[in-house]
Design a protein that fits this description.
By secondary structure, the protein is an all-alpha fold. It has helices spanning 2-28, 33-63, 68-71, 75-90, 92-100, 102-106, 115-143. It has seven helices and no strands. Helix 1 (2-28) packs antiparallel against helix 2. The longest helix is centred in the N-terminal third of the chain and has 31 residues, at 33-63.
Length: 150
């Protein structure tokens, strides 16, 4: 069971990264009705995969692997959790903007997109990707037993 959960955790994490990358690529180009629809779909994938990563990860920490006592003594694990929370909170603004496009897209029209907001969303997605890279660094440090206290 532990191996299956590790596999699912990794699949969800890769889906999360892929969704952010696709959003980032789509938002950098000219936004069309079709690309806006794709952004909405990939943002939904991003949200679902983030929830899966969190749920499976916490399940693994508390019920499998080495136990919560072990992980909560790890600086990289705590940093990983904090970064995950920061990336998740940062994703709220883009998600709300993308959701505001739904009405226009359902009518086959291009949503009104403020160029200034679009620039902010691009920056947020860029920082989300940077945060994910740092999460991966923390995961590697944690897996090697680096940064434990107690």
């Amino acid at each position: 069971m532990a191996a299956a959960l590790a596999f699912l955790h990794h699949v969800a994490a890769f889906a999360l990264v892929a969704a952010i990358v696709v959003e980032f690529v789509l938002i950098r180009g000219t936004i069309t009705v079709e690309s806006a629809r794709k952004i909405l779909r990939f943002d939904a994938v991003y949200g679902m995969s983030a929830m899966a990563v969190l749920a499976i990860g916490l399940f693994r920490v508390f019920f499998f692997e080495k136990g919560a006592g072990y992980y909560f003594q790890s600086v990289p694990f705590l940093a990983k959790l904090a970064l995950f929370a920061v990336v998740g909170l940062a994703s709220i603004k883009p998600t709300l903007e993308f959701l505001s496009w739904r009405t226009a897209l359902k009518q086959g029209q291009m949503p009104a997109i403020d160029p200034r907001k679009l620039g902010i969303i691009r920056s947020i997605l860029h920082w989300e990707l940077a945060g994910v890279v740092l999460i991966l660094l923390c995961a590697a440090l944690m897996a090697r037993g680096i940064g434990f206290f107690g």
